[in-house]
Amino acid sequence: MLHKPLTAALALLCAILPLTSLAAQRPAVLLGDAWYPEQWPEPRWPEDLKLMEAAHIHVVRVAEFAWSRLEPREGQFDLDWLDRAVALAAQHGISVVIGTPSAAPPAWLTQKYPDTLRTEQDGRKAKHGNRQQGSPTSARYREFCRRIAEQLARRFGHNPNVIGWQIDNEYGAFSWDEETHRQFQDWLREKYGTLDALNRHWTTEYWSQTYTDWSQIPMGPGGNPGLDLEFKRFLTASLRDFQHIQVAAIRAASEPRQFITSNFMGWYDVFDHYALTEELDLASWDDYVGSGHLDAARNGMTHDLTRGFKRKNFWVMETQPGFVNWAPVNNALDRGEVREMAWQAVGHGADAVSYWQWRSALNGQEEYHGTLVGADGTPVPLYEEVAQIGREFEQASDALAGTSPMADVAILHSYDSRWAIDNQRHNRNFDPVGLLLSYYKPVHEMLQQVDIVGPAAPLTAYRLVIAPGLNVLPDDVSQRLIEYVNGGGHLVLGPRSGMKDTYNALQPARQPGPLVPLLGGRVEQFYALNDDVPVSGAWGSGKARIWAERLKADGAEVLLTYGESNGWLDGQPAVLSGKAGKGRIAYIGAWLDDTLMRAATQWMIRLAGLQPALGPVPEGVEVSRRVGAAKEVFVLINHTKTPQRSTLPRPMQRVLHDGESASAVDLPPRGVEVLVGQRQALPKLP
Ligand code: GLA
Ligand code: GLA
After folding, report:
1. Residue 64 Cα: closest atom of ligand 2
2. For residue 428, what are the β-bridge partners?
3. Distance between terminal CA atoms of the chain?
4. Is the CB of residue 288 below 6 angstroms from any atom belonging to ligand 2?
5. How does pLDDT run across 217-254, given as a tens digit for each residue?
6. 10 Å Cβ neighbour count for 8?
7. What's the pLDDT tens digit per position in 553-586?
8. Quick check: pTM over 0.90?
9. Distance 209 CA to ligand 1 centre (A)
């Protein structure tokens, strides 16, 4: 019999050895796919994994819909097959992320316990046969989810080839049953303490809404704006609890080196993603184009949004291998476009790009979706392009290791504000994400680096903070903005900012509410626009569209003025700016056209003393940057259909071409260039 400490040491060695060797093989940025071994006979697995290995796939996500295989009958768990799949993947140098299967409960579960099924908004019960039929607010359903997550964690929490966990899949489905309604009322009671407080903040004298008992409060949406905003927060809190139960079960039985994430859907706004990512180690998202082709600015903005959830690198947990099956027209991305998207993700801070899915199941709702191999198990044409991406990730691994994007400018994004505006758009064309994009696009083009952060993010490191439509301005946020400006920051507010308090009630002061004294000006009146309004001044001339606010300067400088329009706006200020404390604040009262937004951006970055990360490049060439301790990596992508040449401000090494030195790069259409050089310091403030 072996000596006890020796056995322990051996066990430890066995645990560490495969882990370190696999970890050593894993490049800094991973190529992945969604693999469903449960859909195929086991003797087929080695062939699939061999093909993945040949395509330089480094990671697979598994099991997120496999509940009926993992727990075929209540309380009877069968995890052996998954264990074998994970082990086989390891033999091919492929790491594993395990998804908890709570988005797809088995038929026995919802049949025996119908209370675990969601209720749709119209009162109908969800049915088995699709997915997301489980109710995230049902205590019983949560317990079943906890138990399966715990079983998985116990089995795989120390498996050296399992590198992380995904909780559920694309949260968002909600239940409208009586029990959930009661939970909402309890949640309100907990938050407000007294009905008096709730009645006051919601101004319930309006239309006799006054509540004398908590049980009278309806469940949104579509009611009082105060109630509507709280309903969104309650939904967030519910999903957070739902998630937490599984996170806790996994943490209790797994090693800290295994990350926990969940896959989000970009701008999807059913819940507050800052709240849900708080206890996750990593944010990830599912990047789908659907119909048409890559919209580089909007997609880049979505990467930056996701990076901002935890203010660190993220994963693209799913992306489309050519085409999807759910869009109006499921056209394929062009040859080279999948690679273009993969490198865009990396440039914006993705540390993994994973394709959904590896292979089409022979039946099931997604037979037509794009894959990397066909249902017959042989590669589709796109396979080669994906293999190229995998090779390139390996070539770029040393350069990309330890790097992440770093910006001196932040765009403030708030779910409260989006919810409040979307709830009362006033002009149906006022899309808060579209407004954000109108700021993001020129800023990213000119500086090549932007952060998108939530209202609670620390701001002091930024030279410029832009808040495009900060409609809901809670006291703590306005306090931090005031401190930011007084401390020397430059704050630029966009239209509709500072109108509401945290209860979605109108601020007792005109916009921007508590920031009026800092600005030295205010909004006199807002106007939804049918027709464009001419605007001119220090930024040149152009048009206001969708929205225009008539401003009044009370110490601030007027930068733009409206031309002839509805009479009320004629000759009135559209943009104000002034010094405050050690910094500066500006208020842009209209949705400005692209020309004016470019001029506005030039003005902002000049005052903030900012420069592009790399230097000017031809239009349609996107630059993004990842910074390490002493190096910086640039990803250049030609999003146009013609070849483009960019001259570099200093010679750099071409990462995908054996480190060859270059002082200019030639990019074919959809071409990608990855460059590495010495990290440069940011110039001092003017
Ligand atoms: C109707 C109602 C009013 C008010 C106005 C708003 O006329 O009677 O209470 O809602 O519409 O336009
Ligand atoms: C979502 C889901 C996947 C799959 C893809 C198809 O992202 O998470 O399971 O259905 O869509 O595009």
Report:
1. 9
2. none
3. 74
4. yes
5. 999 777 899 999 999 999 999 999 999 999 999 999 99
6. 11
7. 999 999 999 999 999 999 999 999 999 999 999 9
8. yes
9. 16
